[in-house]
Here is the input.
Amino acid sequence: MFWYGITGLVVPPDGATVIYNWTVEDTTGHVYTRREERSIPKVIDEKIPPGIFVYTATVELPLIGNSSHGYALVIAHPAFQAFQVYIDGVLIGSVGDMERGQSNIWNGIFYFPIDKKFLRGDALSLKIKGYALYIHGFDIEPFIAPIDIARKYVFINRLITDRIYNWAIGASLTVGLSLIGLILLSRGVSNKKYPYFALASMFAAIFYMDYTVIESLPVSYLTYKKIIMISAMMATYFIHNGVLAVVYGKEEKPKSSYFISYLIVGAAIIDIFLGSNMVTFRKIYTHVDLLIPVVFIYDALVLFNKYSQKEDSVREMGILLTGMIANSFFVIIDIYQLMKELYMSSYTVLISTYGLMIFILAMNFALIYDYISVYRRAQSQEKTVKELKDISRRDTLTGAYNRGYISEILSAVHGDVCFLMLDIDHFKRINDTYGHVTGDKVLKHVVSIITMQIRSGDVVIRYGGEEFLIILFDAEMGIGRAVAERIRKAVEKSIIIASGQQIKVTISVGVCCGYIKEDISEEQVWGYIHKADEYLYIAKESGRNKVVAGECPAT
Here is the structure.
């Protein structure tokens, strides 16, 4: 239905004078008349050398339709590498390289306004000189129509040919580059499917160039066509291996998949070395291309088998499978059309690029979905590892960091820093009087007060049994002393209920503040901590329940 829809758009419109009957002079000088309902391209054989073919026709006047704006000749999908248009012996337009045929115009639609002086007689003489390398004629019958009808026809058909294929080239390159971006962002999370599909997109972009109009090629048409067909094979190769990477991952792949990969590479080699002219090469690639739908059907079956197992990647498989089925369908239609044209000189409109576009888009969506899923899993695992690591750093009783954490953060300790060494006064007496359960309760109570009095970026470490180290970042002496006093007063005012009794607790704090350079050694930082411990000792020796602060040694 899609194929008939496309062909319905490209056939000559109503209100047009369609030119069916042509007198043809081939490169040998042989002249014959083609009287057909459809002007189907004729395949050149080895008996007729490539070169200039001359098509002439007489168009009776007046033309169909009444146009005050004039008329235009439209030539769509010419089966030439280049051509010139003459009316009554006057050249009115030329397309492509008429000397060497280094042009790719077969999928183009060309529009030539007709001067009103040619429309005054009973008929006009139309001549088209076309440079042909392997087929000659027209895929769509040339026609003359009122300018408004001709312009509308050209606009619609360029939309579904030139523009959509230019978009396809851009989309394929974008997909390829986005996949390369995912490879760079994945940091080892991705596997081979990302580079496989990225390369497939890049080669698909080259293949799409065959469907665009290029009036001057930098290489011979044969070389250009070989590049196109090799790109088609390489895109197929990387799609095949990308599908295998999706389905099997690191598992052993079936031997048949390797065999198919070798066949694709062999087909690409055939395209490179066989076919010394376009007539021969066209026969070769038309048959070699039969491998492409076989590969896509194989890949679709592999995807379907995996999809039916309903595993974690079922959504990714479903998206790829949908694209692969569409791709296979369009490619099969194209191969059938090419075979008909080669052996039956049948009318041809190629649509496989639409299928490849669908697969490329499906592939992009599937891989982006896969990347997001893998990234989320990696983030979840990273979060779990971080949480487990954080738990291992924490004191299980109080929730403060354990002493081993000091070594981990020493490298981050620089700038204005205060070290507060805090000790619970007479803690042994509390344990002896009320028991260790109450002692544990006191420890947790003191840590909860400390946590409420400091910022989230500051650190509380259980340094010893009832001794805690507090590190205040970006804090000078005034802040360090004030925070220590705030903690001391909060603990002093608090009451702990244990075994039906009210227990009051006090603390002593030693404060050491100073500026720490970034290149300071760990030993020097430990010197600051020990200095805070010395100030704590002074606080306890001078009566407890007090803060003693001093400068840290200069670094």
